[in-house]
């Protein structure tokens, strides 16, 4: 290739001159290969000019062109070269704190979350049952403690009429064939030469009822604190008789003879074995009251309530204090309170018959009647607290929500 302007020869691959930028051609039209000798013509009126010595031709220097960066041709689609391939749809741009996950990863994550929720749900139900048991046990223990208070013993004694207690089904020699304890006492009194109505009148006017209340109070104190009560034996019963001798003589309308008093003392000695059988200190040998004493102690009751609270706190943390966790705790409290109220109502009013002697049913009615006020207050408090938890679980402002990644 040749540059006709600069008279330079280039490689065949070149298209333009690197010096002047002229387009190269394959033919050397004006290419000079030999030095040109200048021709001088003297001017007609001018003195001849000294001829110029011809310049010796310089050896040609071959210029190697530097590589030129290829020209990038822009592509402009036209109707002829435009293809019909579908355009690629890129995923939308995600926030920096959210990573893109494939459908398979999303399904796997949802399955793991479902299994975790099932496990947490089963554990929450089981813990709720345990928490309910602790609440109910604490309530029963507190009611048992209330039974051991002196006021309760007085209330039970005032509500129980010994002469109306049914003894049918009680296997005690001498009284097994009677319907009530009053009939047995009056029959035994008649056999001893005492009129039937006299014994009941003596009971109502003597200190015997107060003595019974005192004995119950001593036994209750023993159950609650372990304080050993005075012995209940024949000697104590004789003392009660002597303390009420004036009232007995007033009811009889005369002074008792020494022989009559001696007969009474002999009869008391005859049943000394039965009297000792009901002494709580003798019952202690067959049943460990330390278990009862521990169960009705305030530290144990408080510990049961705290343990129930701890269980429901764990349930709340596991469920991130969601509405179902709060509702579950509320339902447990409502159930425990309702059950305590129902048991108190059934035993106080003898709504259900149990396969036990009727005397125990009447005593249970008197017992629950004495503590019914405390039982209903406690049950109402538990139900009210449970309702509050259920209502709170339904209010959205109190719910703890999480955002899924």
Number of helices: 14
Shape: rod-shaped
Structural class: mainly alpha
Strand content of the residues, in percent?
under 5%
How is this fold's topology laid out?
Elements: E1 2-3, E2 8-9, H1 103-147, H2 150-159, H3 181-191, H4 196-205, H5 208-225, H6 234-243, H7 245-252, H8 258-270, H9 272-277, H10 280-283, H11 289-295, H12 298-318, H13 323-349, H14 358-394
Antiparallel strand pairs: 1-2
Helix pairs in contact: 1-12, 1-13, 1-14, 2-5, 2-14, 3-4, 4-7, 13-14
Report on this structure:
The chain has 405 residues and is mostly helical. It is built from 14 helices and 2 strands; from the N terminus they run E-E-H-H-H-H-H-H-H-H-H-H-H-H-H-H. Among the domains are: 1-31, no CATH class; 129-147 and 296-398, no CATH class; 165-292, no CATH class. A two-stranded antiparallel ribbon has the order 1-2. The model is unreliable at 397-405 (pLDDT under 50).
Key terms for this structure?
rod-shaped, mainly alpha, 2 strands, 56% helix, two-stranded antiparallel ribbon
Compose a concise summary of this entry:
By secondary structure, this protein is mostly helical. It has 14 helices and two strands.
């Amino acid at each position: 290739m040749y540059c006709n302007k600069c008279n330079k020869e280039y490689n065949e691959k070149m298209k333009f001159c690197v010096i002047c930028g002229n387009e190269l051609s394959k033919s050397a039209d004006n290419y000079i290969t030999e030095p040109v000798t200048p021709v001088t013509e003297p001017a007609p009126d001018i003195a001849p000019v000294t001829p110029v010595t011809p310049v010796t031709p310089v050896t040609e220097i071959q210029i190697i062109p530097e590589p030129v960066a290829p020209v990038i041709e822009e592509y402009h689609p036209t109707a002829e070269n435009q293809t019909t391939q579908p355009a690629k749809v890129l995923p939308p741009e995600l926030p920096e704190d959210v990573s893109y996950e494939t459908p398979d990863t999303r399904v796997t994550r949802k399955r793991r979350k479902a299994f975790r929720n099932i496990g947490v749900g089963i554990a929450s139900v089981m813990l709720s049952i345990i928490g309910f048991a602790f609440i109910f046990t604490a309530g029963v223990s507190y009611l048992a403690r209330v039974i051991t208070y002196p006021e309760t013993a007085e209330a039970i004694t005032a509500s129980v009429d010994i002469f109306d207690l049914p003894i049918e089904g009680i296997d005690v020699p001498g009284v097994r064939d009677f319907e009530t304890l009053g009939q047995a006492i009056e029959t035994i009194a008649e056999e001893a030469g005492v009129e039937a109505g006299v014994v009941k009148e003596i009971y109502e006017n003597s200190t015997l009822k107060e003595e019974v209340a005192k004995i119950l109070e001593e036994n209750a104190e023993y159950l609650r604190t372990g304080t050993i009560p005075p012995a209940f034996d024949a000697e104590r019963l004789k003392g009660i008789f002597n303390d009420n001798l004036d009232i007995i003589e007033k009811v009889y309308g005369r002074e008792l003879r020494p022989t009559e008093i001696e007969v009474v003392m002999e009869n008391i000695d005859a049943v000394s074995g039965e009297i000792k059988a009901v002494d709580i200190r003798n019952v202690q040998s067959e049943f460990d009251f330390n278990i009862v004493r521990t169960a009705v102690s305030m530290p144990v009751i408080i510990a049961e309530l705290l343990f129930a609270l701890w269980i429901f706190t764990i349930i709340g943390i596991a469920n991130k204090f969601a509405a179902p966790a709060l509702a579950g705790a509320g339902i447990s409290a409502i159930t425990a309170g309702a059950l305590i109220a129902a048991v108190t109502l059934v035993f106080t009013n003898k709504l259900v018959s149990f396969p036990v002697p009727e005397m125990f049913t009447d005593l249970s009615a008197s017992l629950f009647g004495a503590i019914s006020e405390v039982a209903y207050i406690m049950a109402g408090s538990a139900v009210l607290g449970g309702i509050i938890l259920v209502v709170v679980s339904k209010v959205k402002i109190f719910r703890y929500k999480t955002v899924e990644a």
